[in-house]
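Minutes, project check-in

Agenda point 3 was the complex the collaborators sent over. CS summarized: two entities, 898 residues total, and the question is how they sit relative to each other. Sequences were read into the notes so everyone works from the same version.
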Amino acid sequence: MPLPDIKSGRLSACQYSVNFSDAHPPLTPAQALIEAERCYYCFDAPCINACPTGIDIPSFIRRIGEDNLRGAAKAILEANVFGGMCARVCPTEVLCEQACVRNTHEDKPVEIGLLQRHATDAYFKAPGAPLFARLGPTGKRIAVVGAGPAGLSCAHRAALLGHDVTVFEARPKPGGLNEYGLATYKTVDGFAQREIDWLLAIGGIEIRHGQALGEQITLAELSAQFDAVFLGIGLGGVNALGLASESTPGVGNAVEFIAGLRQASDVAAVPVGRRVVVIGGGMTAVDAAVQSRKLGAEEVTIVYRRDQQRMPASGYEQDWALRNGVTIRTWSVLKALDTSMGHVESATFAEVGDIAGRLEATGRLWSLAADTVLKAIGQTLVLADPGLATVALQSGRIAVDAEGRSSLPNVWAGGDCTWGGRDLTVEAVEHGKIAAYSIDRALGFMRSDAGARRLRRAAAA
Amino acid sequence: MADLSSTFAGIRSPNPFWLASAPPTDKEYNIQRAFEAGWGGVVWKTLGEAGPPIVNVNGPRYAALYSQDRRLIGFNNIELITDRPLEVNLAEIARIKRRWPDRAVVVSLMVPCEENAWRAILPQVEDTGCDGVELNFGCPHGMSERGMGSAVGQVPEYIEMVTRWCKQYSRLPVIVKLTPNIADIRPPALAAQRGGADAVSLINTINSVMGVDLDALLINPNTGGTGSHGGYCGPAVKPIAQNMVAEIARTPEMASLPISGIGGITNWRDAAEFIALGCGNVQVCTAAMTYGFRIVQDMIDGLANYMDDKGFAHIDDFRGRAVRSIVNWNQLNLNHVEKARIDQDACIQCGRCHVVCEDTSHQAITATKNGQRHFEVIDAECVGCNLCVSVCPVPQCITMHALKPGEIDARTGQSVPAAYANWTTHPNNPARAPSSV
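CS then shared the predicted structure for the full assembly.
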């Protein structure tokens, strides 16, 4: 019996550096000017409405064209404090760029994401004087649980509105999925932490690490000590396959694989199987599969239970996987993990078909040899705190209204832990932002016109 | 295929595309390349009188106005007339003309406004065998401060006088090049005609300052910290040039005065427009200085295809055909009513037509219909101003449609009269002529 082929250092140092460099290089200044010229500066622009954070896209693009990159960055960051990261990770092909009127005109949208990156990169290179100033202090204290995009967006907006914010974070670094959950080549050169350092520089935000809800802190304590609580706790659990052999060595979670790679000081030291099977069809599956290839895995296969159209990963992400040599196989569910000498050796799948909307086995089975099997079949909300026992849920996530209010008094929530939306970073940012406005109003302030407008829009929605 | 050959003021050339008097026609080397590329003629860069040559600045002589994607829209220069010795130029002109007998070689001249100066240079120029002279009464910088160029072109009496000297001391056809830096182009053109000019050419460049360096807060470009206004040309000046050409072409006294059109001509369409406005040929400079000489082949090809398509065998078949359509405002038919119409299939929903009409005009385009984004002209508000057509990024998406006589104008509630009626007889005109009815 051959031993499982799992090892690090499959590639030359040079190849690692190429594979994990910026996947989508930024525009050059010349390209940015030419691309900016393509924007029509639409009235009531469809791209703005397609952006969950409502960035004034025509304005920031016009400012790029007018050689006012600082003004462009301001237009972006005042609507979306994570505008730099979103420029890297947003599935623009289903958001702003899908709405661009150039699609109708010539089947090629303005490259909004790359232009946003151009403006924010230029700004973060030398931020200079602060873009935003906090309103006068309110004396109110807000607790934010989770230093991910939702939590930090809420913290930043609340701090701008004059409140003092304490962020409780279980992990040693802030950023949430920006730090632990994205493919390495999407955010190179420590951008995630640089962006957060900038965000925190407005003042009024303290982050306490090693503080997990239900362990070091409880909702009851936070509610007692703070004027409002925002939960941006994400999805802490990973769905299981429900197979007995699930804990066999060689079987792991895609989420942990991705986080490990992000945190690795040297990607060459990260081991990867020669043959990798990824179960699932979302962005996590794609990030895990592509990065396995980039680490030197020879055969990487994503196996999804339905067809490619219904994969949660966008068409663009699927193409990215295929271009990187990942095989996508569909209409198959994992049936068994076969082991040899205590290690996974192959995966057996049952072929299924769509019979009147239900997946039914056709009776045919097929197998793939595998040194590593990564599970990417979704994550789940973990409610470890007794104070959350009574919170209203919807489809397993915290139910919130259009302003992010949960069923518990003085408790707001946003990001992946809440129901609704597509689990996108940009949505989490908007959740945090609108919750901060809602909290501000609940505390009796509401000194921001932008906040009043945003809440009116939420009420109308 | 259409015959593009041209006879302008008695000067023959195989096509109507001449290079204007400017840096591209400064010397034998350039002109050799131009003729090899196919240009029909050249106007040699302006010669001055014998003696120590002109001195140019050794800093920026040119500057451009760009579109956002850095296409050159406008261009400016502070070059002076040729800075090479007169004898050198004359020898080169003679060689070029001998080598290219079928091409037009016209020599641009600018000497002091004194009869002797013109009497001295004209025979020398004629000895080269060139086809004609062009009098540079247009240069707006440097030379004008010395009493030449536009300093002459701005005084009709001087134009007439110098033109007359030239006709007196030379048998060559005389083309008078006019400056646009005046209030009305007609008096200088009439003066040239009175002086016996065989033709006029226009426009020369327009006084211009191209920009300011916002870091240094200095004119940009500058030569060691100071700059001077220069002559503006290129695509941006075409409408100004066309107006001036048309003003001359539609003046009855000048109906038979040949016009050489100059000003922003970049492609065959521009050239065809100038010809339709009455020009016998066209002169090009900025386009060549932007792309090089080979553009003439694209111009020749485009113009020939257009003429074939329209059934014009010769340039004269459409020359001046658009002139009759240009009238004074008070002759416009005020009974004519147009409305914009948006082709919903072509509309890409950018909404620019709506916002400009809403913000800056007549509130005549919807933004929504039944709660959906939808841009449609409201006939009851539309005055037919053409702003929406002008800003729409999609060609032919918004078009203007004339109401037929008898149709009701939804804006006024009135039936459109069949009769023509202009301001001169309009009831609101206090100085109206008595109605003919």
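Noted in discussion: The mean pLDDT of chain A is 95.
Follow-up: revisit at the next meeting once the mutant set is ready.
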